Amino acid sequence: MITKGIKQLVEEANKQVEQLSMEQVLADESGDLILVDIRDVRELDRGGMIPDAVHAPRGMLEFWVDPASPYHKEVFAQEDKTYVLYCQSAWRSALAAKSLHDMGMRNLKHITGGFKAWKEAGGPVGDRPTKDK
Fold first, then answer.
1. Distance (Å, rounded) from C-alpha 102 to C-alpha 104?
2. Is residue 128 part of a domain?
3. pLDDT per residue over 18-61, tens digit each?
4. At 127, is the secondary structure helix, strand, or coil?
5. Are residues 111 and 22 in contact, defined by beta-carbon separation less than 8 angstroms?
6. Counted domains in the chain
7. Any bridge partners for residue 30, and if so which?
8. Angle between the N-to-C axes of helices 92-102 and 6-16, in degrees from 0 to 180, rounded to the nearest 10
9. Quick check: is 1 in a domain?
10. What would the pLDDT profile of 51-102 be if each residue is shown by its tens digit?
11. Are 56 and 64 a contacting pair, CB within 8 Å?
C-alpha cells in the first residue's frame, strides 16, 4: 500500500523546484532558457511541441543529464543555462525536476500548467523534430 499519493508528491516537488508561468517563459528574451519537453513521442506526434525545445523522454531524462552515464547528452552540460521542463499538465515535469534537483542540478525550473497551458496562452507550437537534439 502506498503512503503518499501523486498529488502529495507533486506538491512536494513544487515546493522544491521553482515554476515559471507561461507569461514569464513567453516574455523571456535572455536566451538563457532551454525548454525541455519530457512527454512521450506519441504525445509530440499528436499535439506538437514548443519550437526549439529539446525532447528528453521522461524515462531517459536522468540518464541524459548525468555526465557519467553512457547515454549523456551534451545539451544538458550547459551550466550557464536554465533548463525549463514541461509535460502536458505539469505533474510529470514537477516530479522530473525534483529528481534532477535531487541529483544536484540547480539550474532548472518547470512550466506551470504544462504544454496544455502553453497552448491556451497562445504560445507557438511546432512539429516534433525528426531527430532529437
1. 5
2. no
3. 999 988 999 999 999 999 999 999 999 999 999 999 999 999 99
4. coil
5. yes
6. 1
7. none
8. 50
9. no
10. 999 999 999 999 999 999 999 999 999 999 999 999 999 999 999 999 999 9
11. yes
